[in-house]
Amino acid sequence: MWTIPASLKTCWISKNTRRFSMPKIQNMGASTPTLVAHPTREALAADAVTRILDIIEHVLSERTIAHISLTGGTMGIATLKAWAENERVKDIDWSRVHFWFSDERYVPERSPERNDGQAIEALLAPLLSHGLVVGNVHRMGPSDIFTGLDAAAEHYAFEMRDYAGSAPAVSVQMPEGATELPLAGGHGGGAGHEHGGSGGCGCGGGGCGSSAPEQSIEETTLEDFDAEAAEPAGGCGCGGGGCGGGGGQWPAPVFDITLLGMGPDGHIASLFPGRKQVLLGTGLPEDPVEGGKAVTVMVSDSPKPPAERVSVTLPIINNSRHVFFLITGEDKQDATGRLLAGAKLDAEDLNAELLLETPAVGARGKKQTLIFATEESLAPENRP
Ligand SMILES: O=C1O[C@H](COP(=O)(O)O)[C@@H](O)[C@H](O)[C@H]1O
Protein backbone atom coordinates (compact mmCIF):
# COMPACT_ATOMS: atom_id res chain seq x y z
CA MET A 1 0.00 0.00 0.00
CA TRP A 2 1.43 3.38 -0.90
CA THR A 3 0.12 6.92 -0.68
CA ILE A 4 0.64 9.92 -2.91
CA PRO A 5 2.77 12.54 -1.19
CA ALA A 6 0.68 15.64 -0.52
CA SER A 7 2.89 17.86 -2.67
CA LEU A 8 2.57 15.61 -5.70
CA LYS A 9 -1.19 15.36 -5.26
CA THR A 10 -1.55 19.14 -5.21
CA CYS A 11 0.56 19.40 -8.30
CA TRP A 12 -1.51 16.80 -10.14
CA ILE A 13 -4.79 18.55 -9.25
CA SER A 14 -3.65 22.01 -10.21
CA LYS A 15 -2.26 20.82 -13.54
CA ASN A 16 -5.54 19.23 -14.45
CA THR A 17 -7.53 22.24 -13.34
CA ARG A 18 -5.51 24.33 -15.75
CA ARG A 19 -5.92 21.83 -18.51
CA PHE A 20 -9.69 21.57 -18.28
CA SER A 21 -10.65 25.14 -17.46
CA MET A 22 -11.68 26.34 -20.91
CA PRO A 23 -11.33 30.03 -21.72
CA LYS A 24 -14.73 31.68 -21.51
CA ILE A 25 -16.23 33.68 -24.34
CA GLN A 26 -16.10 37.45 -23.81
CA ASN A 27 -18.41 40.28 -24.83
CA MET A 28 -21.52 38.10 -24.83
CA GLY A 29 -24.98 39.41 -24.13
CA ALA A 30 -26.52 38.00 -20.98
CA SER A 31 -29.92 36.93 -22.28
CA THR A 32 -31.04 33.41 -23.08
CA PRO A 33 -32.39 33.13 -26.63
CA THR A 34 -36.10 32.29 -26.88
CA LEU A 35 -37.91 30.88 -29.89
CA VAL A 36 -40.95 32.78 -31.20
CA ALA A 37 -42.47 30.63 -33.94
CA HIS A 38 -45.12 31.80 -36.37
CA PRO A 39 -47.06 29.93 -39.05
CA THR A 40 -46.52 32.59 -41.72
CA ARG A 41 -44.14 35.38 -42.68
CA GLU A 42 -46.95 37.90 -42.29
CA ALA A 43 -47.66 36.80 -38.72
CA LEU A 44 -43.96 36.85 -37.88
CA ALA A 45 -43.46 40.33 -39.32
CA ALA A 46 -46.53 41.69 -37.51
CA ASP A 47 -45.34 40.34 -34.15
CA ALA A 48 -41.75 41.50 -34.64
CA VAL A 49 -42.89 45.00 -35.64
CA THR A 50 -45.17 45.31 -32.61
CA ARG A 51 -42.27 44.46 -30.33
CA ILE A 52 -39.85 46.73 -32.20
CA LEU A 53 -42.23 49.68 -31.91
CA ASP A 54 -42.86 48.92 -28.22
CA ILE A 55 -39.12 49.05 -27.59
CA ILE A 56 -38.59 52.24 -29.58
CA GLU A 57 -41.45 53.99 -27.77
CA HIS A 58 -40.07 52.88 -24.45
CA VAL A 59 -36.53 54.00 -25.27
CA LEU A 60 -37.73 57.41 -26.48
CA SER A 61 -39.72 57.89 -23.30
CA GLU A 62 -36.50 57.52 -21.33
CA ARG A 63 -33.74 58.83 -23.61
CA THR A 64 -33.29 61.29 -26.43
CA ILE A 65 -32.14 58.84 -29.04
CA ALA A 66 -32.77 55.25 -30.03
CA HIS A 67 -30.22 53.27 -32.07
CA ILE A 68 -31.53 50.47 -34.25
CA SER A 69 -29.37 48.18 -36.37
CA LEU A 70 -31.08 46.80 -39.48
CA THR A 71 -30.50 43.73 -41.57
CA GLY A 72 -31.11 42.72 -45.14
CA GLY A 73 -32.35 39.28 -46.15
CA THR A 74 -35.73 37.85 -46.99
CA MET A 75 -37.46 38.09 -43.61
CA GLY A 76 -35.50 41.20 -42.66
CA ILE A 77 -36.82 43.22 -45.58
CA ALA A 78 -40.33 41.75 -45.25
CA THR A 79 -40.33 42.96 -41.63
CA LEU A 80 -39.21 46.44 -42.65
CA LYS A 81 -42.10 46.64 -45.13
CA ALA A 82 -44.61 45.65 -42.44
CA TRP A 83 -43.00 48.20 -40.12
CA ALA A 84 -43.51 51.01 -42.64
CA GLU A 85 -47.16 50.04 -43.03
CA ASN A 86 -47.89 49.91 -39.30
CA GLU A 87 -50.23 52.66 -38.21
CA ARG A 88 -48.26 53.37 -35.02
CA VAL A 89 -45.42 54.74 -37.17
CA LYS A 90 -47.05 58.16 -37.41
CA ASP A 91 -47.02 58.58 -33.60
CA ILE A 92 -43.27 58.20 -33.20
CA ASP A 93 -40.72 61.00 -33.52
CA TRP A 94 -38.39 59.38 -36.03
CA SER A 95 -35.99 62.33 -35.91
CA ARG A 96 -34.78 60.78 -32.66
CA VAL A 97 -34.05 57.39 -34.13
CA HIS A 98 -30.72 56.43 -35.69
CA PHE A 99 -30.48 53.50 -38.07
CA TRP A 100 -27.41 51.33 -38.62
CA PHE A 101 -26.54 48.20 -40.55
CA SER A 102 -24.81 45.08 -39.30
CA ASP A 103 -23.44 44.30 -42.74
CA GLU A 104 -23.36 45.58 -46.27
CA ARG A 105 -22.37 44.40 -49.69
CA TYR A 106 -19.43 46.42 -51.06
CA VAL A 107 -21.01 47.28 -54.39
CA PRO A 108 -22.02 50.60 -55.96
CA GLU A 109 -24.42 52.80 -54.06
CA ARG A 110 -27.36 52.14 -56.35
CA SER A 111 -26.83 48.40 -56.72
CA PRO A 112 -30.00 46.46 -55.94
CA GLU A 113 -27.78 44.08 -53.98
CA ARG A 114 -27.12 46.59 -51.23
CA ASN A 115 -28.97 45.97 -47.98
CA ASP A 116 -29.34 49.70 -47.38
CA GLY A 117 -31.05 50.30 -50.75
CA GLN A 118 -33.61 47.62 -49.94
CA ALA A 119 -34.09 49.01 -46.44
CA ILE A 120 -34.52 52.53 -47.82
CA GLU A 121 -37.21 51.38 -50.20
CA ALA A 122 -39.01 49.24 -47.62
CA LEU A 123 -38.82 51.46 -44.53
CA LEU A 124 -36.48 54.41 -44.44
CA ALA A 125 -37.90 56.43 -47.34
CA PRO A 126 -41.45 56.13 -45.95
CA LEU A 127 -40.16 57.21 -42.52
CA LEU A 128 -38.79 60.46 -43.97
CA SER A 129 -42.30 61.83 -44.05
CA HIS A 130 -42.57 61.01 -40.34
CA GLY A 131 -39.48 62.94 -39.32
CA LEU A 132 -36.59 60.57 -40.05
CA VAL A 133 -33.42 62.52 -40.77
CA VAL A 134 -31.32 61.31 -43.68
CA GLY A 135 -28.12 61.94 -41.76
CA ASN A 136 -29.29 59.64 -38.98
CA VAL A 137 -29.12 56.67 -41.31
CA HIS A 138 -25.60 55.31 -40.95
CA ARG A 139 -24.67 53.40 -44.07
CA MET A 140 -21.58 51.44 -44.90
CA GLY A 141 -19.48 52.80 -47.74
CA PRO A 142 -20.31 51.87 -51.33
CA SER A 143 -17.68 50.77 -53.84
CA ASP A 144 -18.25 53.68 -56.24
CA ILE A 145 -17.52 56.24 -53.52
CA PHE A 146 -14.98 54.61 -51.22
CA THR A 147 -11.41 53.91 -52.23
CA GLY A 148 -11.46 50.32 -51.01
CA LEU A 149 -13.05 47.72 -48.81
CA ASP A 150 -10.62 48.59 -46.03
CA ALA A 151 -11.64 52.27 -46.14
CA ALA A 152 -15.31 51.30 -45.96
CA ALA A 153 -14.73 48.99 -42.98
CA GLU A 154 -12.61 51.56 -41.19
CA HIS A 155 -15.11 54.32 -41.90
CA TYR A 156 -17.89 52.41 -40.20
CA ALA A 157 -15.76 51.77 -37.13
CA PHE A 158 -15.23 55.52 -36.85
CA GLU A 159 -18.88 56.21 -37.53
CA MET A 160 -19.80 54.01 -34.58
CA ARG A 161 -17.19 55.66 -32.42
CA ASP A 162 -18.58 59.09 -33.32
CA TYR A 163 -21.97 58.13 -31.97
CA ALA A 164 -20.88 56.26 -28.90
CA GLY A 165 -21.77 59.29 -26.79
CA SER A 166 -25.26 59.64 -28.17
CA ALA A 167 -26.79 57.12 -25.80
CA PRO A 168 -25.59 56.01 -22.40
CA ALA A 169 -22.22 54.77 -23.49
CA VAL A 170 -21.17 51.24 -22.94
CA SER A 171 -17.79 50.63 -24.43
CA VAL A 172 -17.14 47.31 -26.01
CA GLN A 173 -14.34 45.58 -24.18
CA MET A 174 -11.83 44.61 -26.80
CA PRO A 175 -9.03 42.16 -26.35
CA GLU A 176 -5.54 43.49 -26.06
CA GLY A 177 -4.23 44.76 -29.35
CA ALA A 178 -7.61 45.15 -31.01
CA THR A 179 -7.87 48.90 -30.96
CA GLU A 180 -5.22 49.81 -33.42
CA LEU A 181 -7.39 51.87 -35.70
CA PRO A 182 -5.62 55.19 -36.04
CA LEU A 183 -7.08 57.50 -33.45
CA ALA A 184 -5.30 60.45 -34.97
CA GLY A 185 -5.65 61.79 -38.43
CA GLY A 186 -9.30 61.04 -39.03
CA HIS A 187 -10.38 58.70 -41.74
CA GLY A 188 -11.18 59.06 -45.34
CA GLY A 189 -12.19 57.08 -48.29
CA GLY A 190 -15.36 58.71 -49.45
CA ALA A 191 -16.87 62.00 -50.41
CA GLY A 192 -18.60 63.64 -47.51
CA HIS A 193 -17.03 61.28 -45.00
CA GLU A 194 -14.01 63.17 -43.84
CA HIS A 195 -13.64 63.52 -40.13
CA GLY A 196 -11.55 66.19 -38.69
CA GLY A 197 -7.95 66.00 -37.87
CA SER A 198 -6.07 64.97 -34.90
CA GLY A 199 -8.60 64.79 -32.14
CA GLY A 200 -11.17 62.21 -31.51
CA CYS A 201 -14.87 62.25 -31.34
CA GLY A 202 -16.37 65.08 -29.38
CA CYS A 203 -19.77 63.57 -28.81
CA GLY A 204 -19.82 64.14 -25.13
CA GLY A 205 -22.52 64.65 -22.59
CA GLY A 206 -25.98 65.10 -23.92
CA GLY A 207 -25.91 63.53 -27.30
CA CYS A 208 -25.28 64.19 -30.90
CA GLY A 209 -27.08 64.04 -34.16
CA SER A 210 -30.42 64.34 -32.48
CA SER A 211 -31.94 67.60 -33.50
CA ALA A 212 -35.08 67.88 -35.56
CA PRO A 213 -34.84 67.93 -39.35
CA GLU A 214 -34.48 71.37 -40.87
CA GLN A 215 -36.28 70.66 -44.07
CA SER A 216 -39.56 68.93 -44.54
CA ILE A 217 -39.38 66.36 -47.25
CA GLU A 218 -42.62 65.99 -49.09
CA GLU A 219 -41.50 63.65 -51.76
CA THR A 220 -39.05 60.99 -50.85
CA THR A 221 -36.72 59.50 -53.38
CA LEU A 222 -33.58 57.46 -53.25
CA GLU A 223 -31.67 60.69 -54.03
CA ASP A 224 -32.43 61.86 -50.52
CA PHE A 225 -30.13 59.15 -49.32
CA ASP A 226 -27.19 59.97 -51.59
CA ALA A 227 -23.94 59.81 -49.72
CA GLU A 228 -23.38 63.53 -50.28
CA ALA A 229 -26.72 64.35 -48.65
CA ALA A 230 -26.17 62.14 -45.67
CA GLU A 231 -24.82 64.58 -43.13
CA PRO A 232 -26.11 64.10 -39.61
CA ALA A 233 -28.70 66.58 -38.48
CA GLY A 234 -27.53 68.37 -35.40
CA GLY A 235 -24.02 67.30 -35.95
CA CYS A 236 -21.69 65.05 -34.11
CA GLY A 237 -18.46 66.70 -34.86
CA CYS A 238 -15.17 65.01 -34.38
CA GLY A 239 -13.37 67.88 -32.80
CA GLY A 240 -10.57 68.36 -30.41
CA GLY A 241 -11.77 66.15 -27.59
CA GLY A 242 -10.55 62.73 -26.81
CA CYS A 243 -12.64 59.74 -27.54
CA GLY A 244 -11.58 57.19 -25.01
CA GLY A 245 -10.50 54.78 -27.67
CA GLY A 246 -7.50 53.52 -25.81
CA GLY A 247 -7.17 51.12 -22.95
CA GLY A 248 -8.49 48.13 -24.83
CA GLN A 249 -11.90 49.64 -25.52
CA TRP A 250 -13.49 50.84 -28.69
CA PRO A 251 -16.59 52.97 -28.13
CA ALA A 252 -19.70 52.21 -30.10
CA PRO A 253 -23.36 53.03 -29.71
CA VAL A 254 -25.40 50.58 -27.70
CA PHE A 255 -27.96 49.39 -30.19
CA ASP A 256 -31.39 49.21 -28.62
CA ILE A 257 -32.30 46.55 -31.16
CA THR A 258 -30.17 44.61 -33.62
CA LEU A 259 -32.16 42.77 -36.27
CA LEU A 260 -30.42 39.78 -37.82
CA GLY A 261 -31.29 37.50 -40.69
CA MET A 262 -29.62 34.12 -40.82
CA GLY A 263 -28.44 32.31 -43.93
CA PRO A 264 -28.99 28.56 -44.53
CA ASP A 265 -25.35 28.09 -43.51
CA GLY A 266 -25.95 29.84 -40.16
CA HIS A 267 -24.23 33.11 -41.07
CA ILE A 268 -25.35 36.38 -39.53
CA ALA A 269 -24.44 39.83 -40.85
CA SER A 270 -21.45 38.84 -43.05
CA LEU A 271 -19.86 36.55 -40.48
CA PHE A 272 -19.66 33.23 -42.29
CA PRO A 273 -19.05 29.70 -40.96
CA GLY A 274 -15.49 28.52 -40.83
CA ARG A 275 -14.05 32.04 -40.94
CA LYS A 276 -11.93 33.17 -38.03
CA GLN A 277 -13.53 36.62 -38.33
CA VAL A 278 -16.48 35.15 -36.46
CA LEU A 279 -14.28 34.86 -33.38
CA LEU A 280 -12.99 38.43 -33.37
CA GLY A 281 -13.41 39.98 -29.97
CA THR A 282 -14.68 36.75 -28.40
CA GLY A 283 -11.46 36.28 -26.46
CA LEU A 284 -11.46 32.58 -27.32
CA PRO A 285 -7.99 31.14 -28.00
CA GLU A 286 -8.69 31.14 -31.74
CA ASP A 287 -9.61 34.85 -31.74
CA PRO A 288 -7.50 36.22 -34.58
CA VAL A 289 -7.14 39.77 -33.36
CA GLU A 290 -6.11 41.83 -36.32
CA GLY A 291 -5.27 45.32 -35.17
CA GLY A 292 -8.18 47.60 -35.79
CA LYS A 293 -10.43 45.03 -37.31
CA ALA A 294 -12.27 43.88 -34.24
CA VAL A 295 -15.09 46.39 -34.66
CA THR A 296 -15.80 45.93 -38.34
CA VAL A 297 -14.38 43.39 -40.76
CA MET A 298 -13.71 43.31 -44.46
CA VAL A 299 -14.95 40.22 -46.22
CA SER A 300 -13.27 39.88 -49.58
CA ASP A 301 -14.38 36.37 -50.57
CA SER A 302 -17.87 35.86 -49.22
CA PRO A 303 -19.23 32.40 -50.05
CA LYS A 304 -22.54 34.12 -50.83
CA PRO A 305 -22.33 36.72 -53.61
CA PRO A 306 -21.46 39.50 -53.82
CA ALA A 307 -17.97 38.56 -52.70
CA GLU A 308 -16.98 41.83 -51.06
CA ARG A 309 -18.72 42.93 -47.89
CA VAL A 310 -18.29 44.84 -44.66
CA SER A 311 -19.63 43.45 -41.39
CA VAL A 312 -19.66 44.40 -37.75
CA THR A 313 -18.20 41.84 -35.37
CA LEU A 314 -19.91 39.77 -32.69
CA PRO A 315 -18.96 42.12 -29.81
CA ILE A 316 -20.75 44.98 -31.57
CA ILE A 317 -23.85 42.82 -32.09
CA ASN A 318 -23.72 41.54 -28.53
CA ASN A 319 -23.50 45.04 -27.16
CA SER A 320 -27.16 45.45 -28.20
CA ARG A 321 -29.95 45.45 -25.67
CA HIS A 322 -32.27 43.36 -27.83
CA VAL A 323 -31.24 40.96 -30.59
CA PHE A 324 -34.04 39.76 -32.88
CA PHE A 325 -33.41 37.00 -35.39
CA LEU A 326 -35.82 37.09 -38.35
CA ILE A 327 -35.73 33.68 -40.01
CA THR A 328 -37.75 32.15 -42.82
CA GLY A 329 -37.20 29.51 -45.51
CA GLU A 330 -37.22 25.72 -45.51
CA ASP A 331 -33.53 25.68 -46.31
CA LYS A 332 -32.83 27.09 -42.83
CA GLN A 333 -34.09 24.06 -40.86
CA ASP A 334 -30.66 22.62 -40.09
CA ALA A 335 -29.13 25.96 -39.16
CA THR A 336 -32.13 26.89 -37.03
CA GLY A 337 -31.80 23.53 -35.27
CA ARG A 338 -28.17 24.30 -34.44
CA LEU A 339 -29.11 27.80 -33.31
CA LEU A 340 -31.77 26.41 -30.97
CA ALA A 341 -29.36 23.80 -29.61
CA GLY A 342 -26.83 26.57 -28.94
CA ALA A 343 -29.53 28.61 -27.24
CA LYS A 344 -29.79 25.94 -24.56
CA LEU A 345 -26.19 26.50 -23.57
CA ASP A 346 -24.98 29.09 -21.12
CA ALA A 347 -22.97 31.75 -22.90
CA GLU A 348 -19.84 30.63 -21.09
CA ASP A 349 -20.19 27.16 -22.58
CA LEU A 350 -20.03 28.44 -26.14
CA ASN A 351 -16.76 27.63 -27.84
CA ALA A 352 -14.98 28.38 -31.08
CA GLU A 353 -16.11 25.15 -32.71
CA LEU A 354 -19.80 25.98 -32.19
CA LEU A 355 -19.37 29.57 -33.38
CA LEU A 356 -17.41 28.56 -36.44
CA GLU A 357 -20.03 25.98 -37.38
CA THR A 358 -22.99 28.34 -36.84
CA PRO A 359 -22.02 31.97 -36.28
CA ALA A 360 -25.62 32.81 -35.28
CA VAL A 361 -25.07 30.86 -32.05
CA GLY A 362 -22.71 33.61 -30.89
CA ALA A 363 -25.26 36.46 -31.03
CA ARG A 364 -27.07 37.36 -27.82
CA GLY A 365 -28.50 40.65 -26.64
CA LYS A 366 -27.85 42.04 -23.20
CA LYS A 367 -31.53 42.14 -22.24
CA GLN A 368 -33.30 39.91 -24.71
CA THR A 369 -32.68 37.57 -27.62
CA LEU A 370 -35.68 36.45 -29.63
CA ILE A 371 -35.47 33.93 -32.45
CA PHE A 372 -38.44 34.73 -34.68
CA ALA A 373 -38.84 31.84 -37.10
CA THR A 374 -41.56 30.76 -39.48
CA GLU A 375 -42.62 27.16 -39.01
CA GLU A 376 -41.24 26.15 -42.40
CA SER A 377 -37.79 27.22 -41.20
CA LEU A 378 -38.05 24.85 -38.24
CA ALA A 379 -37.54 21.10 -38.51
CA PRO A 380 -40.70 19.25 -37.36
CA GLU A 381 -39.12 18.37 -34.01
CA ASN A 382 -38.45 22.07 -33.30
CA ARG A 383 -41.96 23.28 -34.08
CA PRO A 384 -44.15 24.19 -31.14
O1 LIG B 1 -26.21 38.00 -47.15
C1 LIG B 1 -27.01 38.22 -46.29
O2 LIG B 1 -27.88 37.24 -45.92
C2 LIG B 1 -28.51 37.25 -44.66
C3 LIG B 1 -29.73 36.33 -44.71
O3 LIG B 1 -30.44 36.42 -45.91
P1 LIG B 1 -31.73 35.52 -46.21
O4 LIG B 1 -32.28 36.01 -47.52
O5 LIG B 1 -31.32 34.10 -46.26
O6 LIG B 1 -32.71 35.78 -45.11
C4 LIG B 1 -28.80 38.64 -44.20
O7 LIG B 1 -29.24 38.66 -42.89
C5 LIG B 1 -27.55 39.49 -44.31
O8 LIG B 1 -27.77 40.78 -43.78
C6 LIG B 1 -27.18 39.57 -45.73
O9 LIG B 1 -26.10 40.41 -46.03
TrEMBL record:
Protein's pathway: Carbohydrate degradation; pentose phosphate pathway; D-ribulose 5-phosphate from D-glucose 6-phosphate (oxidative stage): step 2/3
Record-annotated Glucosamine/galactosamine-6-phosphate isomerase domain positions: 40-168, 252-344
BP terms from Gene Ontology: carbohydrate metabolic process; pentose-phosphate shunt
TM regions (residue ranges): none
Keywords: Isomerase
Source domain of life: Bacteria
Family the entry assigns: Belongs to the glucosamine/galactosamine-6-phosphate isomerase family. 6-phosphogluconolactonase subfamily.
Protein name: 6-phosphogluconolactonase
Species of the source: Rothia mucilaginosa (strain DY-18)
Classification lineage: Bacteria, Bacillati, Actinomycetota, Actinomycetes, Micrococcales
